[in-house]
Amino acid sequence: MNNTILVTSEHKKSDLIEAFYGRPALKIQPIRAHSERHRIVTCASIINKSNPMNTTITAILKSISMGSFVNLPYEELPGEIFKYLRQFEKSGKLRLDANPLSRYPIVKSELKSELAQLNCMLMYRSTAKFLIFQDIDQIVTPLLGHQSYFAEFSKFPEFSIMQYNAFINTTHGYEIKIGSTKTYILRTPFDLNSEITPMFSDRLNKMRISLKRDETNIKTCDNSWNCDSKKCVGADVIHRSLHALYSYNLHQTKFRQFRSFDCSS
């Protein structure tokens, strides 16, 4: 079975130009969706230094404790945080995802997260029952009080897309308060043209949850992601491009391996 697609430039050219330049071609390797099955997958926004570290780690741990597999897109992480999250990745509880991968830098963080979450949807829509789309510093807490997301979402009437309450950390400590932000739940198979079902309650404004301080305590890092080692980890990628006449350009970017570098660089 051939797992590559051969793309060629088909602009009309004179015989002389084509004889000189030839017909450029690029082999593209389609990315296969993840085969492992999860009942719940959290498609998080990109993890970055704009969010307090304690809030972010708390949200990740909460999703895992509620039975969700976490797809965690990143660009670069302090070495200590990377090692900490790799423990969960090795145990099958999350995936560090070097997305979005692009030959050209994407400046807007919102666009980066939207592309990363779109990639997450494509990778898991056939193998997960529910997909949760949330900001990395938000915590989704069940309205009905169930101890897992799957038990909670299964109790609601049939829906394709549901708008849902979300907890968000509004302090510098470990107490989590309700914020006005909401998240989205997709049930698979889903119809993206269907109406959004609202599912939230003002009664949550009086609720609080607390997590043990040592659950998110990484002693060598502060809440601004500054760690003692001053080392960061990012993705080493490779670019393949098809360049042809008339400015025609098609490219594919692939993850190769992790790389370590000084955070200041």
Automatic annotation (TrEMBL):
<comment type="similarity">
    <text>Belongs to the glycosyltransferase 92 family.</text>
</comment>
<dbReference type="GO" id="GO:0016757">
    <property type="term" value="F:glycosyltransferase activity"/>
</dbReference>
<keyword id="KW-0472">Membrane</keyword>
<dbReference type="GO" id="GO:0016020">
    <property type="term" value="C:membrane"/>
</dbReference>
<protein>
    <recommendedName>
        <fullName>Glycosyltransferase family 92 protein</fullName>
        <ecNumber>2.4.1.-</ecNumber>
    </recommendedName>
</protein>
<keyword id="KW-0808">Transferase</keyword>
<keyword id="KW-0328">Glycosyltransferase</keyword>
<dbReference type="Pfam" id="PF01697">
    <property type="entry name" value="Glyco_transf_92"/>
</dbReference>
<dbReference type="InterPro" id="IPR008166">
    <property type="entry name" value="Glyco_transf_92"/>
</dbReference>
